[in-house]
Amino acid sequence: MKFAIFILIAFFNLNLQAQKPCEISANVNDSIGKYKATKDYLIYEKNFNGKSSYIFATLVLTDGLPTLNLQFIEKSKNFMKANCFNKNSKIYLQLINGKIVTLIHINQENCATLLRDDKGFDNRLLTGYFMFKKEGFEDLKKSPVSLIRIQYSTESADYIFKKELKSELNGNIYEPENYFMNYLHCIE
Question: 50: which DSSP letter?
Fold first, then answer.
């Protein structure tokens, strides 16, 4: 009996420790409504042949509606095509347990904007907000993510999530696979 209680307590403590502390970048509660957002988190990075690509994720809670804000940044001196989001855009998250979770774009059409920096690099920036489905939200809290497929307005692209990512951008270490498991509790 003591062993069973010990196992139960150990399991409970393991689950509590698996979640990371919340780093909130905005927490507003006023007459217009409630808005809460986590700090930007790097979930994908690729530097190859003079081109850099980054995907940052932010979990957002707006008046009780949980959403995922994805921000894509591409940097290059060569031509980069502009991707867009529209009403048909979606995100598919392949979980390690085999399930696929779908997030739906908020139906606001937008395309990547081009900015040129002082070093002659072109920078493309695209931001999209995606809504969670209730059943997918629960699945994301239980299993790591292995792949994200993003359906843009004209094509789709796959990005593989790493267990651990040491960023060349800032030197920090991230855990993209466990992002949702670690931080979804911040917007519940």
Answer: T
Question: Is-contact 38 183, C-beta < 8 A?
Answer: yes
User: pTM value?
Assistant: 0.85
DSSP run (H or E) holding 47: strand 41-48
Query: Residue-wise pLDDT tens for the chain (188 aa)?
Result: 444 444 444 444 444 446 789 998 998 888 888 999 999 999 999 999 889 999 999 999 998 899 999 999 999 988 888 899 999 999 999 999 999 999 999 978 999 998 988 888 899 999 999 999 888 899 999 999 999 999 999 999 999 999 999 999 899 999 999 999 999 999 98
Q: Which of 38, 6, 3 is nearest to 19 (CA)?
A: 38
- DSSP assignment of 55-104 equals EEEEEEEETTEEEEEEEEEEEESS--PPPEE-TT-EEEEEETTS-EEEEE
Angle 8-163-45 (CA atoms, 0-180°, nearest 5)? Answer: 145
What helix, strand, coil percent values describe the chain, rounded to 5? 20, 45, 35
| Of 43, 20, 49, residue with least CA distance to 164 | 43
Both tokens assigned to 154: 């004209």
